[in-house]
Amino acid sequence: MLLTAALAASLYVGGVAAHGGVIAYSIDGKYYDGWKPYNSASGQTSIQRPWATFDPILDATSSTLACNNDGLPGPLQLTASPVAAGSKVTGYWNTWPHDTGPVITYLSQCPSSGCTSVNAQTAKWFKIQEAGLLGGTVEKGNWAAGAMIANNNSWTTTIPSTVPSGHYLIRFETIALHSMPAQFYPECAQIEITGGGSLAPSADQLVTFPGGYKASDPGVTIDIYGQAAKTQTTYVIPGPRLYGSSGGSNPPTPTTTTAPVLCTPPYVLQDSTGHPKSTGCPLDSGPTCNLSAGCSLDSTGFD
Ligand SMILES: *[C@@H]1O[C@H](CO)[C@@H](O)[C@H](O)[C@H]1NC(C)=O
Ligand SMILES: *[C@@H]1O[C@H](CO)[C@@H](O)[C@H](O)[C@H]1NC(C)=O
Ligand SMILES: [Cu+2]
Questions:
Q1: Which tens digits make up the pLDDT trace of 221-270?
Q2: What's the domain count of the chain?
């Protein structure tokens, strides 16, 4: 009986090994175990919000996109505290199989009573770090997810020293682009930031999940095996403009410039942060839109 159970368990783990998520954190050198999706929920204590399965989310507008399924507070939910503003927070993934795609980190501020009462699906998130295509072409280049794998399946984000002190959810996400539709892997943890600054995110830097991404976002629809991917050297990371991108502590991600492209309605040209470009994209004239050059299907632009 025991042998059978052990064998079944090992087969099961093998079956889910192609996916996963953030399984642990370290914050300023202190290590925190994550939630264990395949263990009983009973008695589990973690700073991480519970999640149920290693499977990816395949819909950019899924109700579970904020903190995975179900992302509700655990019965014995913990919060990492204090986390000094400016701290380095590392997320550790299981042995990660998907080396094509971005890695993105968000924060969401909770009330002063803490995050445990907060429904992640209605929380407002801002992006504190993002990395996508680091070099080369979409088809064969180096992606942030590959760098994460190379770095012990881990990704380190610095809490901006400018964010106001308080309770936050921190959301690490990688999006795998090796198959279509794109695969979303978000997990969240609760932290309390101390010694922060006074730069609140602006309204255009805040999104909800679902809401922050669209199925039609170029960073979601991208075909890494298509003809355009052979020469394309840019990737539009989905989501809002980076927090503090005009003066925060995180240096802005280097942007690569592309030649102006004219887009016809209902297409608009987006910049590298997914916002409509204010110039170079007349809505009432121009040739057929070149989707591979960064045009998006949303005539109203982001938001
Ligand atoms: C690599 O990651 C594991 C967690 O998956 C962690 O326990 C270990 O300390 C890390 N190794 C280094 C050298 O950071
Ligand atoms: C579309 O844009 C891509 C990237 O800028 C470019 O390589 C390609 O030649 C363009 N295609 C057309 C038909 O203009
Ligand atoms: Cu997978």
A1: 999 999 999 999 999 999 999 999 753 334 444 444 444 444 444 455 55
A2: 1
Neighbours of 173 (CB within 10 A): 30
What is the DSSP track for 70-125?
B-PPPTT---EEEEETT-EEEEEESS----SS-EEEEEEE--TT-STT--TTT--E
Q: Which ligand is nearest to the CA of 32?
A: 1
Evaluate whether residue 73 is within a structural domain: yes
Q: Which of 26, 31, 48, 154 to mutate to test the pocket of ligand 1 (most atoms within 8 A of CB)?
A: 154
Residue 151 lies in a domain: yes
In a domain, 49, yes or no: yes
The residue written with tokens 């093998």 in the block is 14
Beta-bridge partner residues of 131: 103
- Site residues for ligand 2, CB cut-off 6 Å: 228, 231-232, 258, 290, 292-293
b/e map 118-144, b = 16+ CB within 10 Å: bebbebbbbbbbbbbbbeebbbebebb
Ligand 1: centre distance to CA 26 (Å): 9
pLDDT in tens, 25-69: 999 999 999 999 999 999 999 999 999 999 999 999 999 999 999
What's the domain range around 133? 16-213
- Protein residue whose Cα sits closest to atom 11 of ligand 1: 152
Instruction: Tell which residue, 147, 138, 156, has the closest CA to residue 237.
Output: 138
Q: Which residues line ligand 1 (CB under 6 A)?
A: 24, 92, 152, 154
Helix (H, G, I), strand (E, B) or coil at 172: strand
- The rounded distance, in Å, linking the Cα atoms of 91 and 47 is 12
233 belongs to a structural domain: no
